[in-house]
Batch of 4 targets.
Target 1
Amino acid sequence: MISCTEFIPFYSELFTFLEEQDGYDAVVRYWEHISDTYVQDRLGKLVEKEGIRGCWTYWSRSLNEEACDFRMTYDEETERFTIDMRHCPSRGMLNELTYMKPYHDYCGHCAVLYDRVLEKYGVEGTFDFSKVDKAQCFSCRQMKRPAQE
Amino acid sequence: MALLVMDRKASDNKYLHLDFHSSVDNGLRYVCEHYGEKGVRELLRRYTLAYHKPRLEDIRRRGLTAIAEYLKDIYEKEDASDALRYTLTDACLTVETAYHPGVRYMRSVGETPSEWGPLTMQVVYGIFAEAAGCAFSLRSYDEQTGAAKFSFAKKEAAV
């Protein structure tokens, strides 16, 4: 058995394996596949039903189950959803497994998996991944606004 | 109009995201579709040698006891201690699991687990067994529940 508590190093090794077989594009294709087949059925359905507030519903469950150290906000008026990840246990685990080499773009999966789905519903994301070496990141999602003339 | 705020520390929750069982399964399914069973075996082998490196060293030192302790710990983390029973002697670790926590979870949310449960055990636990100077034997695996019977037996004791 691979326990769900052992998934993160498995995921990292999977990305490394795919890249060694067919390059970085193969890794991105995998992320897109999971986005289309798995995330769409979960996050996508929530956003389809609740609008951008579906993000709040989705991450309310997953971030708690993943025992993240975070601050999450949703402003109903501006329809702005943010996650300030003070410590991501997934990235944190990889950083602590010093005997393993983490996949070089491990955190890249987050933007592809989720935002490929969210873009379909008019939600755009911006990210700050500059502190992933400390298992920290920041993401903001909001409805796309029409370009001002 | 409200501003919703959720602020949590890691210590507020237990680390148990069962969806990750589905994610492991999806990964193995995808690798099979693109690289065949050989690819699945290779990924499992690499994962085991990389992630379990310190554990394999421990198993080489302490043998079957280290494997038994690992299984006990991982089933506790999964809140599935009730599923695990084992008998440990100097020559053999015999294990019986009443269900696989991942299979149970996936079925509970309407997902069909892939065919890779038994092979995962054979590769991961096979490498554990090798480190202990043992042979791994998967005696039964129930696809509906993931219930399994398996053993790690010292090679000289294996019949």
Target 2
Amino acid sequence: MDKRSVIQWLSTLLYNANLPGFIQGRIYRGPLKSVCVPGLNCYSCPGAVGACPLGSLQSSLSGVILHFPFYVLGLLIVFGVLFGRLICGWACPFGLVQELLYKLPTPKIKLSPALQRFTLLKYVITVLFMVVLPLAYYYADGIGIPAFCKFICPAGILEAALPLAAIKPSIRNALGALFSWKLLLLIIILATSTFIYRPFCRFLCPLGAIYSLFNRLSVYGIKVDLDKCIGCDKCLHYCPMQCYNVGDRECINCGACAEVCPTKAISLGKK
Amino acid sequence: MKKILTSFVLALSLVTISGFDTSLSTNTSSLQTKQNTLTIMSKAEAAEISEGVAAPDFTFTDLATGKVMNLSDLRDMPVYLNFWATWCPPCVRELPHIQAKYEQYKDKIHFLAISLDGEQAAPAEFIPAKGYTFPVGYGNEREISRAYNVEAIPMSFIIDTNGVVKAKIVGSMDDTDLERFLQKGL
């Protein structure tokens, strides 16, 4: 197993270290829960010891009292400035799930430039589901809703709804149309993951969208030594995220390019 | 590559260690609390709070009167107990139905909506602002949700005059659902 896989597994385990929760169906609610983990990991996963940054961001805009999410935004900026989308590549459990499925021996599809444009969809989703819809609901009927968690998030279904429903009849009885819709979405995303590399991260994930804004500025990440670069573009050819440039907004700093670079011009580290 | 790995692992473990450290110390403090209220917590930890189980007692402040009460004070009539929070959209949507049923059944059933908000000010401001008159309580949010094993809200219970749970439901109820649920206590 390479270093990145080890860290991916390790962070998945660390985020979900409350293993007894999976048997009891009980959500850990200790003080650590007020810390957001950097990756996408549902707060309501029985194993989760921390909070999901996206969930926390939305909870500040849901219900009948709005709060400005100083803490969560501040944390996201710190994570972003330090690591950018390195977090997507190295410390996101849902990214790991999609990567594992991509290892299945199915035909693999590279996105056409037209389809590549749909990577902009995640910015639309971020603005619409993280900000506009929660606020629209708040101003329309006084109750803000966590729209991304409620209508889209497949990680919530996979990590929280499914295990909790498996253990608790009371949760099972409460499942309705929203669950069916998101389960369908999860199945589509997981199935797509077997032939498209990380489709959720590329098209839908607001967290990836937020971190992508910091990708070029981040302290750590991928860098190119232009003195050594011969412009062969082998890096881009082998990039699983199909970046247009090494380290651009789509780059999850996985380091695949560094491995294939014939002149060793690319490296991961402090930029 | 090495640097990045080390700093990442360091950062990750720092967060985890600091968190676990506090969680350990809180665990001990909650253990002490548990010993003080041993009957409550041990029962609660042992089993899921469902039909036929004694409803764990807890202390709360009645937000309208400021009176500190116990659930066990309400034994002259059955109790409709609801757990909710201002940040929970389905819970808040249920409140108008609770108000309507409260006006209808307040002489036959105690209504008690316990807020699991992080702070008392949230329900204390919201409830009067909306003109709700059914009793709303606030207590030690963490201990109460642990005692009742609240994994999702809204969560509602019917508790009989012996303090035993007669019915439980997770999820938001409309008028019809709530009527049917309350009938189990009547």
Target 3
Amino acid sequence: MAQTDLLDELAQWIPPERLLRQPAQLVPYESDALTAFRSRPAAVLLAATQEEVVQAVRFCHRAAIPFVARGSGTSLSGGSLPVQDGLVIALNRLNRILHLDPAQRIAVVEPGVINLAVSRAAAPYGLYYAPDPSSQQICTIGGNVAFNSGGAHCLKYGMTANHVLGLKVVLPDGEVVELGGASLEGVGPDWTGFFVGSEGLFGIALEITLRLLPKPALYRTVLAAYDSLEAAGDAVASIVAAGLLPGAMEIMDALAIEAAEAAVQAGYPRDAAALLIVELEGEPRQVEAEFAQLLQVVDRSHPRTLSVAKDDADRARIWKGRKSAFSAVGRLSPDYLVQDGVVPRSKLGAALAAIEQMSRRHALRVANVFHAGDGNLHPLILYDGRVDGELERAETLAGEILQLCIELGGSITGEHGVGVEKRQYMAALFAETDLAVMAELRRALDPGELANRGKMFPDGEAPALRAQGPHPLERLGLLSRE
Amino acid sequence: MSAPTAVAPSSTQELQEAVCACPQLAVRGGGSKPGLGPEQPAPVTLDLRRLSGLLEYDPGEFTFTARAGTPLKTVAATLAEHGQYLPFDPPWVDQGATLGGTVAAGLSGSGRYRYGGVRDFLLGVRFVDGQGRLVQGGGRVVKNAAGFDLPKLLVGSLGRLGVLAEVTFKVFPQPEQYTTLRLPQPSLDAALATLATLARSSFDLEALEWVEEEGRPVLYLRQGGLAAPLAERQAALRAWLGGGEPLAAADEARFWQDARELAWVPAGSLCAKVPLRLEQVAALDALLSTCGAPRRYCAGAAWAWVAWPAAAAELHRALSQLQLGGLLLKGQAPSPLLGLRSAPTLAARIKRVLDPFNRFPPL
């Protein structure tokens, strides 16, 4: 039976306005924020209830149809790229915050809830949800869970996995299981932690129990400008060596500063070669004491200028510049690739120098915006897809950067996930046995390899790589990248 | 059947060979958590104490890699030389607990209140599965999203899915100084109300322990950080709470040292960990009070340490009735997992992949 006939079965219980099958309806779902890849699904199900998601997964399992769960489609690794002629299960309508318990400091949410909506709902209780990917105004918790998303504030409190306590999950064969719970602690294997970051290969999270944190009473946000990236990197090393534990430490290079300034007027010094943002947070007396130490350390690193956020509005402006840096840099070029590699923190300087050489060798501009405290690099490779061979050169350069991260003892992804984009590098990062065991674990839950097929593992079927320009939603300003 | 024997590999390769050579085996480290072993001794015990030592530690990176059999005490001493520590505060350091045993048991201590538990600080693992394969998961850098999170799968796996060979952790700078407030509560309800209010406050507590003293709950609130502002911070907390007596410095250190060693658990008593939500505390406490079981609630009552005066089977039954799960750490039971089980069908499927020949005890 053809895929279309099989999908007729779905149409028997899903109203047509929520089962998209016309080519014009499918176009917006052909790719996510990694626009270089595109693939047309047979249908998109706009799921309205958890039960519909469960039934859809069971249907796919019976009919052996590959399926891809999708939230807002902001994945930068092609994590929600559809499988050709498969089913996309769109989860945005499952956007209820089911339960918020301030005494237990948890929120139980559906996967389509927007990241920032959790902090908004928790704010009246003096609580917030810590992971803050730059796309937090649009990306969903379901996607954050699938890809173990990070953000600028991972240094102190970790990534998404560190903030998910429990899950209700539909496994790829339709079994519904409950993992973990509302307590900070559990006994037995950490199934919740094992599911987070599984890139959709272990099924779909239906309910997610998130850990909330008390809002810090005080922030101190410092902005230091330097004459070189190296000097900014050295400052980070000395802040860490001083025993300080800031909530965030971010660096932007000249190209990123220029772009961010042009886009959002964050008040950054335009003539600096590098900008360092350091943010302290916590109890006022402790923060003020740390702040005095921080100023001494930063002062010794010879910044060209040094300023401190005066108030909340000033702080918000500094972060707006940082969080919009990627899309801002994108304006300087018709196309760009965002990379996401990790190096040991002591190797940051070496990594940046090597990237600069690669940029020159391939004659492509590279902007650097990164989570310096975590050693998490985000080189942005600018290219023009209309010029023959530029996309391929950009891809080669991106690959060289990942290879460099591996050689320096780091990782090929800090927070964007492997997805479609980096799966060929998994074999360089992991041994054959490691990948074999991971594949066996996957098949134990999904013998037909239906759930998000083609992601994470190196031997998946590859869709064609094509230059596409920005995503339609990005052109409308509805989607941004980090 | 021949008498149980012990094998003590001193390298990863010897570990792999030992696993392949034994159709049935159980793992032990420092022996601080005998309850994790099988009820009937396995024909072969894999003793990991020779698989010990730090392999990589660059203080500037705030990460280290060590062999799984390394005692926590060794690690803590090395980290302390550089002003660093394990923020998840694992228990039984003085009783010889090892890194591997701590991960396999999934244990954190009172200090997990501030930054997170063992799951949050473990970055990477190398382990030998039931087919003798050496498998690596995670990595050595603080941020990593590549591949399935095998380190988290091994947290709490109780030596039933694989034998840990190496572990990589991130660490933090240790607070320069600590101070603790002792806050007696008139009743259980009052203690629960105080915990709920504290949960929403912006005081950064290192630990929040609930101790039963003469039939009344007493809360111990630990603050840590730079020495200079600490007295003022404590005064602010005390004013906000409307009471509390500061512990003298020597008592302060001893209190948390004893908490870490679970020194209050009577010798020879069973000891279990029982994870909790706040609304489950009252029912468990009623049961434990009736049975005369000494207990402590840790990290804002995220779990209870229970010293159980009777047989493990009775604790298993009682926890099942309360819809709670538990982990037996000292004592013997058919399985260390007591009461309610999490995701049993998923566990069985994963177990078949990593231990298809059932070399390790059942999960």
Target 4
Amino acid sequence: MAVLQAQGLYKSYGQVKALDDVNIEIEDSELLAVIGPSGSGKTTLLRSIAGFVQLDSGKIFIKSKDITDLPPEKRNVAMFFQNYALWPHMTVFENVAYGLKIRRYDKKAIREKVEWALDFLDIKSLAERKPNQLSGGQQQRVALARAIVVQPDVLLLDEPLSNLDAKIRMRIRFELKALQKKLQIATLYVTHDQEEALSIADRIAVMHNGKVLQIGTPQQVYKEPVNLFVADFIGVNSIVRIKPLDKDIVKVGNLEFQPQQGVLHLVIRAEEARVLPAKEHVTLKEGDLKLEGIIMGKLYLGSKHRYEIKIHGIEEILFINSEEAFKINEQIQIIIPKDSFFVYWQ
Amino acid sequence: MSFWQIVLVSMPRLLNGLTVTLYMTVFSAAVGLLLGIILCLGRVYGNKVASLLSTGFIELIRGTPMLVQLFILYYGLPSYNIRLTPLLAALIGFSINSAAYQAEYLRGSIQSIGIGQMKAALSIGMKKWQAVRLIILPQALRRVIPAWTNEFIYLLKYTSMAYIIGAPEMMAQAKFVASRNFEFFKVYLLTAAIYLSIVWTISFVFSYFERKLRIPGTVVTER
């Protein structure tokens, strides 16, 4: 039984459709990541569930109860804000306690629950400090404690890691995932970082122009993207566009494609492509793609090089990283396994 | 007469006037604060009617000279058989005038608080008015202290206008003393010195409270 169900959500701002028939469900203790570029509608979706956006139409249910028209404070949804939005005039303890105070818990219960939350997030020693006396990472934990202490039905996380530097972000990803599993709260996680979503989510919803293009496990979304947009948005890619000249078969490297309407878009997972010297003999598996080209430029990246490669026959440029050292103007071949490239006509 | 003789002769009356001046200032600032908070909350968070009424009142008061307001209260109302003493007319005039300005200072302060503060309060289950009372006002009232210091100083000086309708405040007393001994320069200089010393005291006291109530970590402290 899904904890959260959003059915047919629509919301426009003037001409812009922020939500265009959005349907999602989140199971108990599941983490659903909503990703998309800015302006895709992911934050509008989160805010509409929190109750800060009035929908044009559609229904939202939490535990089968229709909450579409309830104000934010009656939804038992907790939101974690990108900039934490801690209350600076209160101590950490008070920040976390207020949600319980207004729910009229008695003093003893409040103390117990707040201590549990602070303990859970390992910030018990900060209880009497004011938010502005804390580091970014500590503030984040306080914000999380404030959100979970009221035991919400649904936890909404709005780009929770975007204010942290890259190293801490990596560590917190693990922690956040472990925390969420321990808490068993249905969670909606909004981010524009596809790698973050792949690593932390049980399922991913990819949004673009207010529409959900695909919902699936990280593996499904990565391995079987439903269209060009999803394929391009997920993973590190290089795209080649080929316009068929006539009704002939389109040849791309060793493979041939039947012409269809529009332009052929070849999306290559650059992280899965192998670059080899042109002369080296390779045995291809069924469906693998082999392209031949010439090195046009290179950048040194430490453990590997980034190459600018011109593909023979189609005269397009690809950017691919490789640990092997090649010289400029060297002839090479690129081998791409069959589930690491996608072909779309558009 | 030497300056010190003037001081000796005028001081009793001037100090008498000063008590009235201070009384008017503190009273109008306090009533203005209370009314100002109500007007401001009405304008920012109230429903359409409350917002319209508050905004209308604020703009009406801010848009007309204080002297006109005092004259309407003192000379105008008697046409409707409402007769106020000069002091009462001045107290009412200064209070509503200050309320309108304080409401606007507070509105600026409220709007300087990030929208996330309110959203965080609502998402945790507070009702709108709870959030205003517990989250927004405690922060906004602290931030408005510098503007209040200004308002208090303005008020202290503006109360001198009450002498025009005959309230017995310090300026009225100064004029009375000076027109008896014809030492206009020295008497008004002394009056100015008294105003100045009070203004400095007010600035000092308010900045003490500003520091004392400051939220830790919100201002880069000197030294």
